Amino acid sequence: MPVYSAQTPSWWVMGMKFPVLEPFKFARAAGAASKFNFNPVGPIWLTIVCAVLMSVIVAVGTGIFLSNLRDRELVSNEETLSNTAFIVAEQIEHIFTTVATVQKEIIQQTADFANLGEDGFERELSRYDFHVKLRDKVSGMPYVGALTVFNAQGRLINFSRQWPIPDIDASDRDFVKAFQSDQNLSSFIGKPIHNLATGTWVVHLARKISGLNGEFLGLTTAAIELQYLENVFNRIAAKPDSGISLLRDDGTLFVRIPKKLNQI
Fold it and tell me: What is the pLDDT of residue 195?
């Protein structure tokens, strides 16, 4: 039979002494074990933390990607605009340079008549053969509606569109007034006007014809068809919704795509 000792919490079995584990020791051990085994970072917590981190990484990565994409788009648009502006400027320069060259040739041909006086000057320039010369010159410039020659008062002397020459008074036009008011002016770009003969909008590039002493004898103009420039701009435009405008140095609008007639 087991023998219990009254002094010590132990018990004897078959002559061997075994200590007795007191209840409070069991409780203390159980509590310690419970504290040791409790792990707040379990699978669920790890899953939540990883999900949050992945969301942050994806959000940051998406932001960086969109920012880089936007920067690339801005650079691409800037390059496209720069290229478009260069092409437009090149086309306009070609047109204006060609017209200026032809006008200088016309003025050179009139130099021999400058010493004939105003009446002799107008008589020689109003001849049919001079009309043919103007007609031949304009045939190589599809953007020019007509080449004209006016006297100092703005009366039409000759032009390329038709023969015989109609009686046209352009004294109220801005390009005539510009030369009359400024003796030092050699060339001028007029405002867009509606050509009643053709129904189109044109801009006159005017150049002064001077006498032997530099006096104002008349001027030659080239009527640039704005519809031609508009067609050129539409071909150059990189995108269907692109906008291109051509303005005079004072802000006067010549051509704009998309077209807005109330702005011309």
Answer: 87
DSSP states along 136-171: HHHHT-TTEEEEEEEETTSBEEEESS-SSPP--B-T
With a CB cutoff of 8 Å and minimum separation 6, the contacts of 214 are 183
Q: Does domain 84-263 have CATH number 3.20.20.140?
A: no
For 211, which DSSP code? -
Nearest C-alpha neighbor of 226 from the set 206, 199, 207: 199
| Predicted local distance difference test score (pLDDT) of residue 115 | 85
Per the structure block, which two tokens stand in for 18? 């075994």
Contact call for residues 205 and 99 (beta carbons, < 8 A):
yes
Does 259 have pLDDT greater than 90? no
Q: Which amino acid is at 58?
A: V
DSSP 169-192: B-TTSHHHHHHHH-TT--EEE---
CB 154 within 8 A of CB 167: no
CA 256 distance to own-chain centroid: 11
pLDDT band at 154 (very low <50, low <70, confident <90, very high): very high
Angle between helices 128-139 and 43-110 (to 10 degrees): 160
SS3 call for 253 = strand
CATH 3.30.450.20, the chain: domain bounds: 84-263
Q: Are 23 and 33 in contact (CB under 8 A)?
A: no
Residue 116 has a pLDDT of: 86
| Residue whose pair of structure tokens reads 């004939």 in the numeric block | 116
Three-state SS sequence of 1-44: CCEECCCCCEEEECCEEEECCCHHHHHHHHHHHHHHHCCCCCHH
Cis peptide before 164 (omega within 30 of 0): yes
Mean pLDDT of the chain: 79
Strands 16-19 and 144-151: unpaired
